[in-house]
Amino acid sequence: MSSDLRQALEANDLFAKKSLGQHFLLDLNLTGKIARLAGIQSGETVLEVGPGPGGLTQTLLESPAAQVIVIEKDARFVAHLKEFFKSYGDRLIVIEGDALAMDEASLLRKYEAKGAARLISNLPYNVGTPLLVKWLKAGDWRGPMCLMFQAEVAERICARPGQGAYGRLTVLTAARCNARLAMAVPRLAFVPPPRVESAVVVLENHDHPYADLAALEHVTAQAFGQRRKMLRASLKGLGDCEALLAQAHIDPTARPETVPPEAFFALAKAWRGVAL
Ligand code: SAM
C-alpha cells in the first residue's frame, strides 16, 4: 500500500465523490501491474485521464516515460497532485479540465510531446465508453491504450461474434484496434469499492485501420439498435439494404451479433458509396 498517499488523502480530507465516478487504486503493486501491461517505452509521453489521488500516476512517473500528462476534472485533486508529486518537476503536467471536451492534439503540441502518446487510465465508469469512442476516432497523436473499464464494458469491447457481449462497441473498436482483456480487477481493490467488477483492456493500433468511423457508427447504430431482428429488417433505414448487404457479402437473414467486424466495414463502405 502507498501509506504516503493514504496519509495525504486523509490530511487533506480528499474523500471520493460519487458524481465523478471516484474509486481509487491505492495499491502500488496493482498500479505497477497496469503500467507493465501498458508496455511504456522509454522517452514516450503518457496521457492519463482522471488521475484522482495519483496511485496510478505514481507508477507512471516511475516508468521510463519522458513525460506524464494528466487531465483531472476535480480541482481538489489538481492541487493535491501538484503538491504531492512536485519532486518530479516538469515530467508531470497536471491539467484541470473535462477529458470529454479536451483537444488532446493541441495539448500534446503545446507540451512538445514526441511521437504518439500512450493512453493509460483507470477511467470513471460514467464516461468510459464516450471517451473510448472519442479516442478511437483520434488522429495520429494517439498511441496504444491501456484502460480500466467496468467489466461488462470491457467484455463488450473485446467480444467475439456470436457472444452476447458482441455489439456496436466491439465493431467500432475493431476498426482501429486489436483489443484484449488483460486483467480482471475485483471490486475490493478500489477505495471505496464500486458496485461492479472491473477489467483492464489493452488496445494496440491496427496497421491497416478501417478509416470511416462515421459511416460505421451509422450502420452499426441501425443494425444493433434492433439486435433481435434480421439485418434485412433492421437496416431498412439505409435505403436499398438488400443490395448493400449483397455488396458486403452478408446474409440478409443474419442477426447482427453473428456478423464479423470486417463484414460491417464492407457494409459501411457500400453504404457510403451510395450515400455520397
Ligand atoms: N486514476 C485514479 C485511481 O486509479 O485511483 C482515479 C480513478 S477514478 C475511477 C476516476 C477519476 O476521473 C476521478 O479522479 C474523477 O475525478 C476523474 N474524472 C471524472 N470525470 C472526468 C472527466 N470528464 N474528465 C477528467 N477527469 C474526470
Automatic annotation (TrEMBL):
PROSITE patterns to which the protein is assigned, alphabetical: RRNA_A_DIMETH, SAM_RNA_A_N6_MT
Compartment(s) where it occurs, according to its Swiss-Prot or TrEMBL record: Cytoplasm
Lipid biosynthesis recorded as keyword: no
EC top class named in words: transferase
Keywords linked to the UniProt accession: Cytoplasm, Methyltransferase, RNA-binding, rRNA processing, S-adenosyl-L-methionine, Transferase
Residues of the Ribosomal RNA adenine methylase transferase N-terminal domain: 30-207
GO annotation terms (biological process): methylation
Binding positions for S-adenosyl-L-methionine per the UniProt entry: 23, 25, 50, 72, 98, 122
Record EC number: 2.1.1.182
Primary location recorded for the protein, binned into one broad class: cytoplasm
Enzymatic reactions: adenosine(1518)/adenosine(1519) in 16S rRNA + 4 S-adenosyl-L-methionine = N(6)-dimethyladenosine(1518)/N(6)-dimethyladenosine(1519) in 16S rRNA + 4 S-adenosyl-L-homocysteine + 4 H(+)
Gene Ontology terms, MF aspect: methyltransferase activity
SMART domains: rADc
Entry-linked Gene3D superfamilies: Ribosomal RNA adenine dimethylase-like, domain 2, Vaccinia Virus protein VP39
NCBIfam families, per the entry: ksgA (TIGR00755)
Similarity comment: Belongs to the class I-like SAM-binding methyltransferase superfamily. rRNA adenine N(6)-methyltransferase family. RsmA subfamily.
Function: Specifically dimethylates two adjacent adenosines (A1518 and A1519) in the loop of a conserved hairpin near the 3'-end of 16S rRNA in the 30S particle. May play a critical role in biogenesis of 30S subunits.
Protein name per UniProt: Ribosomal RNA small subunit methyltransferase A
Organism (species): Candidatus Phycosocius spiralis
Lineage of origin: Bacteria, Pseudomonadati, Pseudomonadota, Alphaproteobacteria, Caulobacterales
Gene name of the encoded protein: rsmA
